[in-house]
Amino acid sequence: MYSKKKILVLGVANERSIAWAISEALKREGAELALTYPNEAIEKRLRPLAATIGCDFLLPCDVQSDEDLDRLFSEIGQRWGRLDGVVHSVAYADREDLQRPFSQTSREGFRLALDVSAYSLVAVAGR
Fold first, then answer.
1. DSSP type of residue 81
2. What number of other Cβ atoms are within 10 A of residue 46's Cβ?
3. If you placed Cys at 26, which of 1, 31, 73, 109 could pair as Cys (CB 3.0 to 4.6 Å)?
């Protein structure tokens, strides 16, 4: 079903990520994958994982940056010419907000979590 499909996966943080399990399954089914990472720390974890499934298309992308998203889709267009699907498995919240009860989440922390975890889907879908 996914043979030869070109799929973008956002949100692999480590081998316990839901996005990683989805990536492994898609690769098993024959999909070609592009994986993204938001920073160097995650890139260091992602590269060895990607190598285990033969994925060499890794791209930096901070989903809060329209410039990063534009560059991401430009590079995908240059390499593949098309995109058949997107896995959006991105989530983030400040550590301080996660350590407090939910009702004590800061307004700024909520805005950040909403932007990264939810609005980024809108930003990706619009491209």
1. S
2. 22
3. 31
Cβ-in-10-Å burial (0-12, 13-18, 19+) of 73 comes to middle
Q: Are 72 and 97 in contact (CB under 8 A)?
A: no
| pTM for the structure as a whole | 0.92
pLDDT, tens digit, 9 for 90 and up, residues 91-101? 999 999 999 99
Q: Are strands 32-37 and 6-10 parallel, antiparallel or unpaired?
A: parallel
Burial-class residue 7 by CB neighbours within 10 Å (0-12, 13-18, 19+): buried
Hey, what are 5's tokens?
Answer: 């499909």
- pLDDT tens track for 3-55: 899 999 999 999 999 999 999 999 999 999 999 999 999 999 999 999 999 99
**CA 27 and chain centroid, separation:** 16
User: Which amino acid is it at 116?
Assistant: V
